[in-house]
Amino acid sequence: MSERFINPFTDFGFKKLFGEESNKELLIDFLNELLYDKQHITEITYLKNEQMPNSPLDRRAIFDLYCQNDRGEKFIVELQKVKQEFFKDRSLYYATFPIQEQAVTGSDWNFKLEAVYTISIMDFVFNRFQEGNSKFKHHIQLIDTETQEVFYDKLTFIYLEMPKFNKTADELETRFDKWMYLLKNLSRFHEVPPALQERIFKKLFDAAEIVKLNPKDQQAYRDSLKHVWDFNNAVNTAIKEGREEGREEGREEGREEGREEGKVEAIRETARKMKAKGIDVSTIHSITGLSTEEIEAL
C-alpha cells in the first residue's frame, strides 16, 4: 500500500482510531468539538456494541461505537458508507436501545432518562435533491413546529455529510473544521499538515500510521480496505447498469428505479460474497449497512 495513514472510512480504521481504550482521548476531543455548545466530556466508557432485543422475536442492533460519559449520557457513533432506503427510520430505531436500557426494574421509577446522542459520519449526501446545499452538519432534535422551540433536548441526532465538506487547509476556521478536514483527507496525507500540528491530532496521526501497526492489524486493515473496494465497485457497477437500463427505457423514472434497484442488489451480493468467505456478521453489517437478520438470511 502506498498510503502512510489508514483510511478512517474502513471498519478497521474507524474502530482503531476511535474505538480502542488507548485512543479514547481522540473520541472525547471529537465529541466535545462536535457538541461544543452542549457538552464538556472528560471521561467515556466503552459499552457493548451489540444490543439484544427485549424479545427473541425482535431485531437486535450492532453499533460501530457505543459509549457513555461520566454523567451516564449515551453516545452511538456510526460510520455510514452508503445510504439505505429507510435511513432515518434506522437511526431512530437504534436510538431506542439506549433509551430502553435505562428502564429501572423491580422498583419504583419516575421515567427520568439521561440524554442519548446518535452521531452518523456519512460518506454520502443525505438527500440527492439537495446536493447544491453546502450545509454538511445537521443537528436534529424534537421541536414544537409552531414556535420552533426545542421540546425535548435529551434525544439528539447529528448527521455529518462528509462529501459536502470541501474546505482547504487555508480555510479551516475552527477546531471542528480541523477534525472534519482530517477525517476526510487522512489517507491522502504523507506528512502531518501544518494546520494539524496540535497535540491531539499528532496522537491520531501516530495511531493511524500503517507501518506502526502490528502484523495482525496490518492484515486486518488490508482486509477491511479490500472489502470497501469490492463494495464500492459493486455499487458503482450497479449504478451504471441502472442508468443504462433507464436510458434504454427512455424514461427518467426507469433510470432512477433501475439505479436504486441495482444498488440494493449490489449491496446484497457483496454481503453474500463476504458471508461465503467466513467474514463475521458484525463486519458485514458495518460495511454494507444491512441488518443482521438480512445478512443471516442470505
UniProtKB/TrEMBL annotation:
Location of the region described as Disordered in the Swiss-Prot/TrEMBL record: 240-265
InterPro entries: RpnA (IPR010106)
Residue stretches spanning the membrane: none
A Pfam family of this chain: PDDEXK_2
Protein name, per record: Rpn family recombination-promoting nuclease/putative transposase
Source organism phylogeny: Bacteria, Pseudomonadati, Bacteroidota, Cytophagia, Cytophagales
